[in-house]
Design a protein that fits this description.
There is one protein chain. This protein is of the alpha+beta class. It has one domain (about 5-135): Nuclear Transport Factor 2, Chain: A (Roll). The chain contains five helices and six strands. It has helices at about 5, 15-25, 30-35, 55-70, 130-135, and strands spanning about 35-45, 50-55, 70-85, 90-100, 105-115, 120-125. Strands 2-1-6-5-4-3 form a six-stranded mixed β-sheet, sandwiched between helices. β4 and β5 form a beta hairpin. The chain starts with a helix and ends in a 5-residue tail after the last helix.
Length: about 140
């Protein structure tokens, strides 16, 4: 059963937007994502070796999709927990990847925060793991 089914209609507009963004991400619907982001959106992500990578604006979002498409044959993000923090939303999720060349499956559990303003995503920040994400927003595991 999905987290959404358990929580029912208690989600705020920001939480709902994050659910829709994850759905769009899993569909690879770049047009939807760009249309729901601030033109100067910043995506603070992690590269394959865990290094910080910054993508900015629609061009950055396109670059992010190209980058993951070059490395991974398939990518899936599965929401586990979504917490409304006011102007931001903390998301804990599983990410599943299949290597393009190797066919090796990789799975991990991590967290990210979405900062929103006026119904648009202004910043996405990805963390190495759940503990780092919780600490970044002042919460315990």
């Amino acid at each position: 059963m999905s987290l959404r089914a358990i929580l029912g209609d208690v989600s705020t507009p920001n939480v709902e937007l994050v659910h829709q963004a994850f759905d769009a991400l899993n569909r690879r619907d770049l047009d939807w994502l760009i249309s729901h982001c601030d033109p100067d959106v910043e995506m603070h992500m992690r590269g394959v070796a865990g290094e910080p990578v910054l993508y900015v604006g629609p061009a950055g979002m396109r670059e992010y999709f190209r980058d993951i498409g070059e490395i991974w044959q398939s990518v899936e993000f599965v929401l586990e927990d979504v917490r409304d923090l006011g102007d931001s939303v903390l998301v804990i999720f599983r990410q599943r990847f299949r290597g393009r060349g190797s066919g090796v499956d990789v799975e991990g559990r991590t967290a990210c925060t979405y900062r929103l303003r006026d119904g648009a995503l202004t910043e996405l920040r990805s963390y190495r793991d759940v503990a780092e994400g919780l600490a970044a927003v002042g919460l315990d595991d």
